[in-house]
Amino acid sequence: MKTRPAGIGNVHADWMGSLPSKLSAMPLKHLAVPGSHDSFTFWVDVHAPVGPDQKVYVKYLATMFSVLAKKVMVRWSMTQNLTFKEQLDAGIRYFDLRVSAKPGELGNEIYFIHGLFGHKVRDGLLEISSFLGRHRKEVVFLDFNHYYAMEAEHHVYLISMLQEVFGSKLCNNCAVENVTLDYLWEKKYQVIVFYHHPSAQGVPVMWPGNKIPAPWANTTEPIKLIEFLETTLKERDKQGSFHVSQAILTPTVNTVAKGLLWGLRSYLVERNLPTIMSWVEAQKPGVDGVNIITSDFVDLTDFANIVIKLNNLLLSEQNRKPR
Q1: Residue 114 annotated in active site
Q2: Is this structure's pTM higher than 0.85?
């Protein structure tokens, strides 16, 4: 797998393992965990066909204008700069994953996808597994939430691949309230896989998608995004699930047309990051607070560090409790 020169050091490569015992004993659903949106988009293949996740008119434009159209698509498909390893070193522990087979390709190979095809899923999983082998107290959430051009045999292949790559690191599906870092360390579990498809029913190490709701604001306006994040946090289930706050803006067709040559990062993300990050900094984890927070371009700010530090509020809260 291609890698970039490291832009962020491994300051938070072991942040979970370094948490105080008061926090490692808390349910993970009450801790603040940094995540990335469309985590795999640090590289996409401009030479492969446009992905089956795209609308018909996008496929038509890509066919008509070929490489030029795809170069524009790259600017709007890429939501991350860092590789999996670099994200892990920076402290990211939740990965938003969309996958697809290539229509017409022989075999059952699966690729990451967001408009354009990315790396083979196996390569990404091996990179994550290698990190976990070196950092035994770190735990990742792998959220497989979109599937394209996949038949039953593709799902069998992917689920088998996950079991083959991670083996005994995979956490069995159980009550979310029981999942603390202490519990995971004792069992030597490091990977929680959410598989949003009926194919995974009955597989003990595949968690159902309803245990990790990730409400999506689908807006280009930061104020509307923040209102949505606040509302969905208040409506968060008290029992039975983790929770993802997607602190991301989503371009419309009109947005892309206006900022065609600029791209997602320059036209939409960078100018609105200060507002979004101010909201993140003001959050508190815990029973009624944030859990997993995701962002685009996690390297553009001190995102992971800011989210991880929110957990200190849980310590000060405990210290204020009457003894």
Answers
A1: yes
A2: yes
